Batch of 2 targets.
Target 1
Amino acid sequence: MSSRSIEVLRLGQRFVRDDRTLTHLCLVSRALGAESIYLEDAEKKVTGTLEEVNKTWGGDFKAILGVPWRKVIRGAKEEGRIVVHLTMYGVPIQDVAEKLRGLDKILLVVGGPKVPGKVYHEADYNVSVTSQPHSEIAALAIALHEIQSGEELKRTFRKSRLRILPSARGKRVVEN
Ligand SMILES: C[S@@+](CC[C@H](N)C(=O)[O-])C[C@H]1O[C@@H](n2cnc3c(N)ncnc32)[C@H](O)[C@@H]1O
């Protein structure tokens, strides 16, 4: 398993808070190999949901609430993390994927409905997943997949209460 560390930052302002989108960003980050997500503004219930998911399905993915984006980016840079901002205006991910795969520590930044202009300057890379508008959840999933070359699909989660036995039909779940 790779020793690469990926954290996620979701930029967000109070007046457009959407807890369902935030929960999905958490679930996608967790399932696809990130170790934590910073949410500038989210209800406590988002972390409650995640704790339940961790208890049932394993791992120790964390959501960290309420830290302003500038502070998250500053902290990331101080610890040598490379800041990769996902935006439809950036360079195509297929052109930089090889470089991104070589990085040990990454902060992947996704926006909401409005992204402050400064983020584009603070980022080490501004990266697009197609040059068409779509969704932060989709962009995040594809970026995580590209950066980890699909290795994240084979990941197992430690200390789960339940485990799925993949099956062509029906649902097979066992207790650990
Ligand atoms: C609904 S979009 C709104 C973007 C907004 N118009 C802006 O200022 O960039 C929310 C977020 O989804 C992500 N996103 C949407 N389309 C993307 C694309 N084609 N490539 C990469 N990220 C994208 C970006 O992180 C963006 O900030």
Target 2
Amino acid sequence: MASPTPANKISAAQVRADFNDLPAVIHYTRAAHELGLWQSERILIERFFPDRTAPLLEAGCGSGRVSIALWKIGYGHLTAFDFATELVDQAHSLAAERGATAIRFFVGDATALGQCHPIDDKAPTPSPDPGAPVCHLLDDKPVGGPRGFGGALFLFNGLMQIPGRENRRAALRELHRVCVPGAPLLFTTHDRESSLMERALWRMEAYHWERGDQDPRLPEFGDRYFEDHAGRTFMHLPVREEILEDLAATGWRHTFDAMRTDIAKESKAVRQFSDECRFWSAVRA
Ligand SMILES: C[S@@+](CC[C@H](N)C(=O)[O-])C[C@H]1O[C@@H](n2cnc3c(N)ncnc32)[C@H](O)[C@@H]1O
């Protein structure tokens, strides 16, 4: 469950409102319709998720760009969720249009999966006991064998759009809770140390934080909040060590990480949609 954010800081509610706003809905829906999987995503998904029959969970699915593309290349047992209802609505209708009706879409917050509810159910299903390890993602239609997902994805930096490190760890713990032992996890982040330019920018930002004249809305050093054609975006940019610590603290064993440019050369359309990022893979311990 997410920790409360101080009133003057960017909160999960603000991030959700930003993703439900029209410019973001248009941006992510267009990508779902036109872009599909990045080359790097496809290479790593095929490497780390070789079993196309395994039940997979996509967190932060947005308008369905990844799930619908996965269904198209033969992944047959997909569940996807996002906390932005407008985006999940778009994902649901694009899946219907493409015949991908087997994908189960939910509205839910990655930090509290027990409160997930089906897309056509506008009100969250109240959990009988908020402390109980209940997840409607699973209870709704139990998956075969040991109950749980055989893998999880949180692509295009969605995990880093959760304000507060403890909340990002809560999301990793929730994914751990609903996955079976040995399940792979794939996600992306930015990297504050990926280039000389980034390092120089973050040295300047550190100077602002030392003086206390950083953007007062930012909960932590490493955060950014900006506005462009895709609307308002909150993003936490970590260093590599931080993610290694977060994985270890939440029951995930790190198996791989690399910058996107070291995995594949992306098309111009993909590079216009998304900046350079670091891919991470881990296995549920
Ligand atoms: C950059 S968008 C990527 C969307 C989609 N995966 C794609 O690649 O087009 C990040 C997504 O993460 C979702 N997200 C952020 N925080 C979330 C949370 N706590 N729970 C569920 N979804 C979240 C946002 O609503 C948004 O749809």
